[in-house]
Amino acid sequence: PYDVLIVGGGPAGAAAAIYAARKGIRTGVVAERFGGQVLDTMSIENFISVTETEGPKFAAALEQHVKTYDVDIMNLQRAEKLTQKDGVNEIQLASGATLKAKAVILATGARWREINVPGEREYRNHGVAYCPHCDGPLFKGKRVAVIGGGNSGVEAAIDLAGIVSHVTLLEFGAELRADEVLQRKLRSLANVTVITQAQTTEVHGDGTKVNALSYKDLVSGELKNVELEGIFVQIGLVPNTEWLKGSLTLSRHGEIEIDARGQTSLAGVFAAGDVTTVPYKQIVIAVGEGAKASLAAFDYIIRS
Ligand code: FAD
């Protein structure tokens, strides 16, 4: 069996693998797609000490760093079940194989919920964005829309209003769902327009980048157009935990509940990164959390 088996090959999983391997213990990484979400990222400008890089380049660097250590990388493998038998963890793969480990680190990440309208996929990274902390500065002085009036949408609109020229916030329901204090802050901003009962129907562009979106006014039924350069979709981040339901404690948003050391509700099972309840989903945070969970897993192993 492995001493530490990591499920997920994004920034959190890669950091966990390096920290475990450096302890000289038997380490494996199972990943559906080594690199994770950064593979879908254009430019990364907020990983401290790297002024600017591209997602695929960053992912390749992660893999290269892990490969300088004695780590079994099992790429293109999907984990489907986690069980424990006599104090040993078992991870069942879609291929039918079962891997055993003294400690497991879950780092399966998350995915942004999409609005699923024509143009969204086509213009992803060409005007359609999901992370205001990451991509906000790319729209400096431009017009953007935020889709979603929950806490993350309203926070994004407030954040972006300080960078861009104008923000249109579109909410499907009759009212915003964000905390009142955020709504108050939002309403105090001169360059924000809030439109409720608006269903986004299409992202338009000139073939290379976004230039407008259309939405249906759910009161009048009319189709309307907003000219802009950017669209931030903020309708939720979905943790990749469907396969873990019933095996450990998840929050009501489906995130793995962890303590300050990355320990989950199951002994010997740790978790790190976007898949957990840790606030703020960022690469630099996922990397730190992965390192922390790995040190905690090592502590667990030497005590058991
Ligand atoms: P992920 O990166 O999501 O990695 C999860 C890993 O688990 C992947 O290898 C995946 O294949 C694997 N996996 C999932 N389910 C299974 C399974 N059942 N079995 C096996 N493997 C599985 N952050 C920044 O800090 N700066 C940015 O500029 C930035 N830009 C972004 C742009 C975009 C378009 C997106 C989508 C995200 C961006 N982020 C950015 C966020 C950042 O990518 C994430 O916070 C970070 O990747 C989280 O790392 P993670 O390791 O927790 O999860």
TrEMBL record:
Which residue ranges does the record assign to the FAD/NAD(P)-binding domain? 2-290
Q: What is its EC number?
A: 1.8.1.-
The superkingdom listed in its UniProt entry is Bacteria
What cofactor requirement does the entry state? FAD
Q: What Gene Ontology molecular function terms does this protein carry?
A: oxidoreductase activity
Q: How does it assemble?
A: Homodimer.
- Name assigned to this protein: Alkyl hydroperoxide reductase subunit F
Organism per entry: Undibacterium rivi
From-to range in the entire protein, with total length: 212 to 515 of 515
